[in-house]
Write a structure and sequence with these properties.
Blueprint lengths: L6 H20 L3 H19 L4 H10 L6 H11 L11 H7 L22 E5 L4 E8 L2 E9 L4 E4 L6 E13 L4 E10 L2 H7 L4 H13 L1
Antiparallel strand pairs: 1-2, 2-3, 3-5, 4-5, 5-6
Helix pairs in contact: 1-2, 1-4, 3-4
The structure holds zinc ion.
Length: about 220
Amino acid sequence: MKQTIQPYQYYFIKREVDQLLNAYSSVNDPKTVQTVQALAAEKIHAMLETEIPEIEAFLTAVLDVKLKKEKAERLLEELKEIVLPFEQPSKIQIEKLFRKVKKLKQPDWKEFDLREHTYIGWNDPGSQKKFLVYYEDEQLKGISGTLSPTITKGICAICQKTSNVSLFLSTTKSGSEGTYTKKGNYICHDSQQCNHQLVKLAPFYEFAERVKRER
Ligand SMILES: [Zn+2]
């Protein structure tokens, strides 16, 4: 099967399916359910910008008012077949991204289902650091900073969901005096969870740009 959708698009579709299931179980008015269905299909088509046969078959199955959670989960698992996995970089590529980091902790690739990742993020609790790698114009990029061990409820700057977030600080070189200040963004403590909530690319790249400017 051809892999044609990105992980964030997969999670966009999954979010729509959750909303459909919610409507099927809680809305009695058939007209309202039909509206929810039409809207879900429209949003998915608009997001994908192109017609994909596997998606059409998937939509036919999930636009059935008798759809239950178990079947939806199975259909979503099957849909993963067409998701383009995150391309795993080599150890050396990662080292090159974080040259200045002493005793760099490499990500544990066994932990990741690469079809679930728009970016790869991992924590080094020992040094209280978070590392992020992602592709921009097919180029591998990296971001690192300190991650507070304190977790609070808040909106994540990357996935923009209310989530378990921690303050992520990147070091800023401010002006000509060469003094360093720190600027922070609240982001999901758990990057795996963040990827599961990431349904749009723009906020991720805006975050990356901001952090790069701040460095
Ligand atoms: Zn997040």
